[in-house]
Amino acid sequence: MHGPTLVNWLLAFLTAAAGAYCLTRLRHSPCTAGGTTSPATHRLLAREADAAEALMGLGMAAMAVTGAVVPGTVWAWLFGVPAAGFLLAAVRGPARRGHRLHHAVGGLAMTYTALAMTATPGHHHHTASTGAPLLTGALLLYFGAYSLWASSRLLHTPGGSVAVGTAGLPHACRLIMGIGMFAMLLTM
Length: 188
Known about the structure:
globular, mainly alpha
């Protein structure tokens, strides 16, 4: 990432904490099934989401700290392969299609930022931007809107009460990752 050092470290800390929390969620199965899916399918989809969010959080932290030190092809494989898997899963099955598409967009956005960042290793935040401006703008709009949506889910639970304690942590992690991706794209 090409922003100020303090912002990079704060972003790295927040996204690493969110990624680590998602890793701990992998160990615990959800206690109730949602929607029309069976409990086994619900657990599998929840684990899939937790693994994707852990990868994104820890990957954003690593990318914010290491910047262009790691070759873009490494990042492309790390995020591109899961993104392609989520795209295929979303096309093949209706279960959690929107959630899978979101993870695919996130993985592709991470790949895009890594490749753009490593394409110009001497790039600083006060020089010309890297990447395709239209694609960067579209991704900024997407992650800005996603962050607003995630913040609204954090503030209110389906019952209308404010989320307190650990009940809101998954929503807070999604908000952190949405804001983190927005910040990474903004500094391009």
